[in-house]
Amino acid sequence: MNNVFVYCEIEEGQVADVSLELLTKGRKLADDLKCELETIVIGHELKGVEKQVMPFGVDKVWVADDKRLYPYTTLPHTSILVKLFEEEKPQIALMGATSIGRDLGPRVSSALHSGLTADCTSLVIGDHEDKKNKKEYKDLLYQIRPAFGGNIVATIINPDCRPQMATVREGVMKKEIVSDAYKGKVKNIDVEKYVKPEDFVIKVIERHMEKSKVNIKNAGIIVAGGYGVGSKANFNLLTELAEVIGGEVGASRAAVDAGFASHERQIGQTGVTVRPKLYIACGISGQIQHTAGMEESAMVIAINTDKNAPINAFADYVITGDIAEVLPKMIKQYKENTK
Amino acid sequence: MKGLKIVVLAKQVPDTRNVGKDAMKADGTVNRAALPAIFNPEDLNALEQALRLKDKYEGTEVTLLTMGPGRAAEIIREGLYRGADNGILLSDRAFAGSDTLATSYALSCTLKKMGKIDIIIAGRQAIDGDTAQVGPQVAEKLGFPQITYAEDIVSAEKGNVVVKRRLERGVETVEGKMPMVVTVNASAPECRPRNAKFVMKYKHARAVSEMQNATEDYIALHSNRPYLNIGEWSVNDIDTNSEELGLTGSPTKVKSIENVVFQAKEAKVLEPTDADMGELMKELIANHTIG
């Protein structure tokens, strides 16, 4: 009762990274609130799945194992979560802002009439005073996210409804094992009691999942381009530099929207969050929805024609110039200095 | 064959993709007046899917439903110009301050009043909030199944809908039964342009709240041509529990809003010359950042 819950996503028997990141955050929140961390895994052939999650400090693992529960479809997963939450009354429920979490979260929040905040970049515990109704709230979940196209940062709370629900994108939170010896309990859910036959009205008739080939999340060096790169051809210069210095290519949302780069390379609030040792921002103006995803980079080089671009505030080196001129020089100088 | 009854959920949004320097006021609040109001991009993808079903299944009727102030009737006109049959503007002060859940509640109450519906199609998410919540929340409130992240509604026949979904890491084809809610991704085909014939027909289409200062001639035009009257519903036209509406019905509250402040740090400014680039590369190699 009154614990922190994390919904664990499963793909081919593996718990998703985003879920492990949320368990790490969930552990921290549970410590702050002096309550337990629980997680629920829904799928098929889940024997031993608790071994993947318990090291992250999980006190109780709920397992719903049934061949009809994998691959994911909305309704049976919703039914299980709704009933379990009604029974267990968690104060906080977290899930990944993935194509599963963003399908499931709103459905569950609608059924329970609990508030849900999407794509949070930070989650902390804090108090709230409702001056108008003269009410004090202790230990609420502050759900912090950029809003309005990233021009503002909003702190959202759910004072009266439980659970307080939030989704977080992959790579935003850090993943950290508490102890390999951490011991929690396993509870098996009697699936028949939680789902209805009509929950299986949607059938998956074909499915092709691929492992993400692009791995910008763990790249040590990222060369990222924005709308200011100007063209797909110019974007090739970024690829060339990245190849030469051993990095990956990233992009801002504007660059992805303009078709310069694929969505899996998108960095920022609606993409991934990265923490490389070197971030080279090319033609990126530096709106907060982008910088939210790269501000923890150890070193930033900003290349921009606008010497007042907001990205420069994050930069260790500012180069004012056209990337078509700057990047070839960087490539040339790198080669000359590493001969 | 009897056609489908389709409702497209659409939202008028500030164009947050084109935020200029004057978009923020001196006090740090958003200057909405400086942002053009547009048809939410993924809702246009949703409309296109609806229009394709209309092209394919004779007798299909496409209705746009939007919730917003009187000026949101503009996007209903945009829909009519592209081939939608009619639209409803849901507009009332009672809805002010709604979060996604209260919005979904108001929309679902409206949809219940609209009679039998086969498919509700919406954009996956709106660019002013990026939450992707309203589609699934409406589906839950109506007790309909949902298919999110749709890229193509392949068919809608004999009570079955087949949809191709585009997920982060792959594609999926799923089948489900109508009535159904489908939310559509930006990766779906773009919406067709305005059709000149429909623009001529509907350019004077107006909702009631846009007719406040209309001349007698203009009112007469609208009574002679009923298709020019965009349906406008208030809270009195639907059955609701007032506790679930607007700010009161919204479990999430905004505690605080901060303008984004950039913290300046000391940066080394370099010229785009071979000499400066050479120095930079030497530094990066020396401190093991690269190489």
User: How would a crystallographer describe the biggest sheet of chain B?
Assistant: 10 strands, mixed
**Rg of chain B, Cα atoms, Å:** 23 Å
Helix amount of chain A: 25-40%
CATH class of chain B: Alpha Beta
Average pLDDT for all residues of chain B: 91
Structural class by sheet pairing and helices of chain A:
alpha/beta
What do you see in this structure?
Chain B: This is Electron transfer flavoprotein beta subunit. The complex is a heterodimer of chains A (339) and B (291). With 339 residues, chain A is α/β, with parallel strands linked by helices. Chain A has two domains: 4-200, HUPs (Rossmann fold, 3-Layer(aba) Sandwich); 221-337, 3-Layer(aba) Sandwich (Rossmann fold). Chain A has helices spanning 17-33, 50-53, 74-88, 101-112, 232-245, 253-257, 288-291, 323-337; strands spanning 4-8, 10-11, 14-15, 37-43, 60-65, 92-96, 116-117, 122-130, 135-147, 152-157, 164-168, 185-188, 203-209, 221-225, 248-251, 278-282, 300-304, 317-320. Chain A has a seven-stranded parallel sheet, with helices on both faces. In chain A, strands 15-14-16-17-18 form a five-stranded parallel sheet. A three-stranded antiparallel sheet of chain A has the order 8-9-10, covered by helices on one side. Chain A is globular and about 65 Å long. With 291 residues, chain B is of the alpha/beta class. Chain B has one domain (5-244): HUPs (Rossmann fold, 3-Layer(aba) Sandwich), CATH 3.40.50. Chain B has seven helices and 14 strands. In chain B, the strands form two sheets. Chain B has a ten-stranded mixed sheet with strand order 9-8-7-10-6-1-4-5-12-11, sandwiched between helices. In chain B, strands 2-3 form a two-stranded antiparallel sheet. In chain B, helix 2 packs across helix 5 (196-202). The mean pLDDT of chain B is 91. The chains are: A alpha/beta (339), B alpha/beta (291). Chains A and B meet through helix 3, helix 4, strand 7, strand 9 and strand 10 of A and helix 3, helix 4, strand 7, strand 8 and strand 9 of B. Strand 13 of chain A pairs antiparallel with strand 9 of chain B, so a sheet runs across the interface.
